[in-house]
Design brief:
The complex is a heterodimer of chains A (about 90) and B (about 625). With about 90 residues, chain A is mainly alpha-helical. Chain A is built from three helices and two strands, in the order H-H-E-E-H. Chain A is elongated and about 60 Å long. Chain B has 25 helices and two strands. A two-stranded antiparallel ribbon of chain B has the order 1-2. The radius of gyration of chain B is 24 Å and the shape is globular. Classes of the chains: A mainly alpha (about 90), B mainly alpha (about 625).
Chain lengths: ~90, ~625
C-alpha cells in the first residue's frame, strides 16, 4: 500500500464509500425486481404488460432487462469514478 | 491462431468470427439443399453435423496450442470484453440451459422462471461483488485468491477440493447431456456418445488450456445461439406472423389460457406457485444466483480480460449474450404447449402429427391411450382409457422433447434438427471444456505447483496439467455412465454447493478486511458440508443407501407419503439456502473471535478495491 498523506487516504475512503453505496443501491433494485415481485406474483399477474401477465413477464423478461441495465450502469459509473479519483488504469 | 502475434490477432477477431459465422450459415444452406435434392438420410445429416462441429472445435484447439503459462492459464489476459462475454456465455450455458430449460418451463410454467431469473440475476452479483476485484487480483485460479487473501495452504486446499467437487458434479451433467444428444441423433449407445464428446473436449483444452478453450467457446456460442433461435423464430412466424418470438408469445399465452379452460387445466401456465410453493421458488432463485457468483469455472474467465474496466464491461456482454437464449426459452415452452394443445390433445391416434411418432421412438414422447399403457409403453405412468383419442393426461413429454422436437413441430427440414443437436452439443461441450480446465488447473496449479512442488519448471507444470486433464476426463466419463440422476438436478445441486462453499469467502474477502484465515476455513467447511449433507440426504437418500439415520430424509414420495425429512419443506436442489448463510455467519463469528488480519492482508485488500493505486 502506498504510504499516503491524510488527503490521499480520505480520497480513497471516499472512493470506496461511493463504491459500496452504489453497490448497495443496485443490489436493492436487484432484490426488489426478483424477490419482491415474486412475492406478490399472484396479485401482480392480474395486470397486463405487452399482453403478458405482469409477474410472468417480469420473471421471463422484465427482471432480465433490469439486470442488464444494472450491470451496464455500474460499469459506466465505476469507470467515471475511477477517473474522478485518479485510480483508473488508463490515467 | 498460434502463428499470429497478440495485437494483430486481437484486432482481427471480429473479422475472423464474422467469416466463421458466414461459413457456418453457408454450410447450413448447402446441407439443406443437399437434403432436399439428394435425399440425405436423417442419420447422415446427424453425423455430418456433429462431426463437422466437433472437428472444427478440435481444429481451433490445435491451432491455439501453447507452452506459455499465462497463455495456458488465462489466455494471455488479452481477451477483449465482448469476446470474453461470448466465451463466458457459452461456458455458462450448459446442456441444461439449452435442452432442459424450455422443457422445465413447459412443465412448470411460471414456477420454472426461477431458473430464468436465477441463472441471469446471478450476474449482477458477479459484476458488483466479484469480477472486478478478482481481475485486479489477477492470478490464475479461485484457490489462488483464497490462498493469497487468507494465507496458507489449508484454505487453498479447501478451495481445491470444493472446486473439484462442484465442477465434477456439473461436468457429469454436461457429459450425460452430450451423450444423450449423440445417442438420439446418431443412434449410438450413450456410453460411446459420452466418450466421443470427451474426446472433442480433450483435444480442445489439452494443448492450449484457457487460450484454446476461450476461442473454442466463442465459436461454440455462435453455433448454439443460431441453433436455438432458428426453430423458434420459424415457429413464431408460422403461428403469429411475427418473426420475433420473444415479443410474439404474449398473444399465444392468452390463447393457451383459453385452451387451458376448455381442457379443464386447473393450474394454468402463468399461475404462480402451483407446482412449487413460494418458499422453494425463492430459495431456488437465490441458490442459483449466489451459486453463479461462486462457480469457479465462470469466475475464472474474468482473469482473462486485460483490465478491471474490461472485466466490468465483460460481465454485461456475458449477460446480454446469455439473455438472447434465456429470453427465448419461455417462448419455446409456450409455442410447444400451443402446438400440443391444438394438434395433439383431443385428436384420434391416426391423425397425430408425425413428430409424435418420431420422438416417441426416441423415447421422449409417449402417447398413453392404451389401457395397458402403464406396463407396455415406455414413459407412461398410468393406463389410458383406450378410446383412441389423446386426452391431456394421456400424453407424456420428457422435458428435453420441447427443444428437440420444435423444428419438426414447426415443419422445418431435418437439417434444422441436426443443427439443434449441434447446438446442444456445443452448449454441453463448451461448459465441459471450462469445467475440466478448472479441475485440472486446481490440481496442477494449486495443488502441485503451489503446495507439492513449488520449484517445478513451467514445462513440468504444464505436462502435469495435461496428464491430469486426461485422467479427470476418464474418471468423469466413468462416473457419468454409472450416475443415476437427471441433468437438471445435478446442475442445480452444483449451484447450491458453489453458493455455500465459495461465495461467502470471495465476497467477505473483498468487502470485509477483518475476515481472517480461521473464519474463512471454518465458514467454507461449514457451508460446504452443510449443503452437501442436506443434498446427500434429501436429494440422494443417503439414509436408505447407507442404511443409516444420520442424514435428513427425502421429501414425501409415492412409496413413503408420510415421511418428510426436508427442513421447512425446502427441496434438495436449494440446499444452499442453508449452507450459504450458515457459512457466512460462521465466517463472521469465527473471524471476530480470533485475531485480526495482519497489516499486509489489509493492504492487499485495500489494493483490490482500486483498479490502480497511484503512488502517493
Amino acid at each position: 500500500m502506498a504510504t499516503g498523506t491524510e488527503g490521499v487516504d480520505a480520497r480513497r475512503a471516499e472512493y470506496w464509500r461511493r463504491t459500496v453505496r452504489l453497490t448497495a443501491i443496485l443490489l436493492t433494485i436487484w432484490f426488489v425486481v426478483t424477490y419482491v415481485v415474486a412475492f406478490f406474483a399472484v396479485p401482480l399477474n392480474n395486470f397486463k404488460f405487452f399482453g403478458f401477465p405482469f409477474a410472468f413477464y417480469m420473471g421471463a423478461q422484465g427482471a432480465l432487462v433490469i439486470y442488464l441495465i444494472i450491470i451496464a450502469y455500474y460499469a459506466r459509473y465505476m469507470n467515471r469514478l475511477d477517473h474522478e479519483f485518479g485510480v483508473s488504469e488508463e490515467d | 491462431m498460434a502463428t499470429t502475434t497478440g495485437g494483430d490477432f486481437i484486432s482481427r477477431l471480429p473479422r475472423i468470427y464474422g467469416m466463421y459465422t458466414g461459413g457456418f450459415l453457408t454450410f447450413l444452406v448447402v446441407l439443406a439443399l443437399l437434403e432436399h435434392y439428394m435425399d440425405l438420410s436423417d442419420r447422415t445429416i446427424g453425423y455430418v453435423f456433429l462431426a463437422a462441429t466437433i472437428g472444427l472445435y478440435a481444429m481451433i484447439g490445435v491451432m491455439s496450442r501453447t507452452a506459455n503459462s499465462d497463455e495456458y492459464y488465462v489466455a494471455g489476459r488479452r481477451v477483449p470484453a465482448l469476446f470474453n462475454g461470448m466465451a463466458t456465455a457459452s461456458d455458462w450455458m450448459s446442456a441444461a440451459s439449452f435442452i432442459g430449460m424450455a422443457g422445465t418451463l413447459y412443465v412448470q410454467g411460471y414456477d420454472g422462471l426461477a431458473f430464468i431469473m436465477g441463472w441471469t440475476g446471478g450476474y449482477v452479483l458477479v459484476a458488483l461483488l466479484i469480477a472486478p476485484y478478482l481481475r485486479k487480483f489477477g492470478q490464475y485460479t479461485i484457490p489462488d485468491f483464497l490462498g493469497a487473501r487468507y494465507g496458507g495452504n489449508t484454505i487453498r486446499l479447501i478451495g481445491v477440493v470444493c472446486a473439484i467437487v462442484v465442477s465434477f458434479v456439473y461436468l457429469m451433467a454436461q457429459l450425460s447431456g452430450a451423450g444423450l444428444i449423440m445417442s438420439r441423433f446418431l443412434g449410438i449407445e450413450m456410453m460411446y456418445g459420452i466418450i466421443a464428446a470427451l474426446g472433442g473436449v480433450l483435444v480442445c483444452s489439452m494443448l492450449g488450456g484457457m487460450r484454446a478453450v476461450t476461442w473454442t467457446q466463442v465459436a461454440q456460442y455462435i453455433v448454439l445461439i443460431i441453433a436455438y433461435l432458428i426453430p423458434v423464430v420459424w415457429m413464431s412466424i408460422k403461428v403469429t406472423g411475427n418473426p420475433i418470438p420473444q415479443l410474439a408469445y404474449g398473444g399465444v399465452l392468452e390463447q393457451i389460457g383459453v385452451l387451458e379452460q376448455q381442457l379443464g387445466v386447473v393450474a394454468g401456465h402463468v399461475a404462480p406457485f402451483t407446482r412449487t410453493d413460494m418458499a422453494n421458488f425463492m430459495a431456488l432463485t437465490f441458490c442459483l444466483m449466489v451459486g453463479t457468483a461462486g462457480l469457479p469455472h465462470v469466475l475464472m474467465r474474468f482473469y482473462t480480460v486485460p483490465s478491471v474496466k474490461e472485466a466490468r464491461t465483460s460481465v454485461g456482454w456475458a449477460l446480454l449474450f446469455i439473455c438472447l437464449l434465456y429470453f427465448t426459452a419461455p417462448a419455446y415452452a409456450v409455442f410447444a404447449k400451443h402446438a400440443v394443445y391444438t394438434d395433439v390433445i383431443g385428436k384420434g391416434l391416426a391423425e397425430l402429427p408425425q413428430w409424435v411418432a418420431y420422438w416417441g421412438k426416441i423415447g421422449v414422447v409417449a402417447v398413453c391411450d392404451a389401457v395397458d399403457a402403464a406396463t407396455t409403453i415406455k414413459g407412461c405412468t398410468a393406463a389410458g382409457n383406450g378410446d383412441g383419442i389423446v386426452q391431456l393426461k394421456e400424453l407424456w413429454l420428457h422435458g428435453d422433447a420441447i427443444v428437440l422436437a420444435t423444428p419438426e413441430i414447426a415443419g422445418l427440414p431435418y437439417v434444422i434438427s441436426g443443427l439443434v443437436a449441434a447446438g446442444g452439443l456445443a452448449a454441453a461441450l463448451s461448459t465441459a471444456d471450462g469445467l475440466l480446465l478448472t479441475m485440472s488447473n486446481a490440481l496442477s496449479h494449486d495443488f502441485y505447483t503451489k503446495i507439492v512442488n513449488p520449484n517445478s519448471s513451467v514445462k513440468q507444470r504444464l505436462t502435469i496439467a495435461r496428464v491430469l486433464l486426461v485422467a479427470l476426463a476418464a474418471i468423469a466419463a466413468y462416473a457419468t455412465i454409472h450416475a443415476p440422476a437427471t441433468i437438471l438436478q445435478l446442475v442445480g445441486q452444483a449451484f447450491s454447493l458453489a453458493a455455500s462453499a465459495f461465495f461467502p469467502a470471495l465476497f467477505l474477502g473483498v468487502f470485509w478486511k477483518r475476515c481472517n484465515k480461521a473464519g474463512a476455513i471454518a465458514g467454507m467447511l461449514v457451508g460446504f458440508l452443510l449443503a452437501g449433507y442436506y443434498i446427500a440426504g434429501v436429494g440422494w437418500n443417503f439414509n436408505a443407501l447407507l442404511g443409516v439415520g444420520f442424514f435428513p430424509d427425502p421429501g414425501p414420495s409415492p412409496a413413503n407419503p408420510g415421511v418428510d425429512g426436508r427442513w421447512f419443506g425446502i427441496n434438495a436442489i436449494s440446499g444452499g439456502i442453508f449452507g450459504m448463510p450458515a457459512g457466512m455467519l460462521t465466517m463472521i463469528v469465527v473471524s471476530l473471535l480470533t485475531r485480526d488480519t495482519s497489516p499486509e492482508i489489509k493492504a492487499m485488500v485495500e489494493n483490490l478495491r482500486y483498479p490502480r493505486l497511484a503512488k502517493a
